[in-house]
């Protein structure tokens, strides 16, 4: 079962529950933000009450965040990530120290309206030249800082920009099409051990697999609730927040994404995410247009 946002033909986005090939509205709820304002116990009770089912083929599945929701990211939480950042950077000790520091690296990735989802394009900057996907387990927390679910995140990254100077991280991380989430939130109570999930990445270029990688959340050096707790110390998230927990898969320095590459991510028990690479901001102008339409 996954908690989703979906849109029927001509209708407004609706919070729902997907089970197999069907989706049903959550009764008495329109937005996911309404669900994420609830306590974990209330959230579980709410998604258990659904209306008439529709075939998934008859709706459009949307990114699983809306309202004032935000996506944040944690960095350098896997040994492979530490090594990759040190390889590319002119300031290697910054990444070595943050890996074992008490305070994690956390940064704002995207507001809800900028997100793309499964089947949408993902973006790379026109002024980068060296970009990679970062497959990550993403934790979904409600407004009370409780973990209520998990989803799949692709935290796209410009290695060339971040490597030039760590102060350029916002430019290396925040750009059109730079954050993709899978369409569903897998409820926390349905995931046996989130610190023991396999993460797989495949990048296809035409008929060829040009990169594959596998890791496990068992390699994550931070505790999930600890990351959420640090995030909530200075901030309120009245409509919930999604925190991507870092990547344990980074291609070698001689690999870079190209336009047309297809990026496939799968996380056991959580979901899948597939996107095709586009360059520049123009392919993502639909995000602003759709937000304007929803708010009319």
- Give the overall silhouette: globular
* Cα separation of the termini: 32 Å
In the predicted model, the low-confidence regions spanning at least 5 consecutive residues are none
> What fraction, in percent, of the residue positions are helical?
10-25%
- Please report which band the strand proportion falls in: under 5%, 5-15%, 15-25%, 25-35%, 35-45% or over 45%: 35-45%
Provide the gyration radius in Å: 18 Å
List SSEs in N-to-C order: EEEHHEEEHHEEEEEEEHHEEEEHEEEH
Tell me the total number of β-strands. Answer: 20
Characterize the biggest β-sheet.
Answer: 13 strands, mixed
- Give the mean pLDDT: 93
Question: Which structural class do the helices and strands define?
Answer: alpha+beta
Plain-language structure description:
It is a single chain. With 296 residues, the chain is α+β, with helices and mostly antiparallel strands. 21% of the residues lie in helices and 35% in strands. The strands form three sheets. Strands 1, 2, 3, 4, 5, 6, 7, 8, 11, 12, 14, 15 and 18 form a 13-stranded mixed β-sheet that branches. Strand 2 and strand 3 (22-25) form a beta hairpin. Helix 3 (79-88) packs antiparallel against helix 4 (92-100). The longest helix is centred in the first third of the chain and has 10 residues, at 79-88. The protein starts with a strand and ends with a helix.
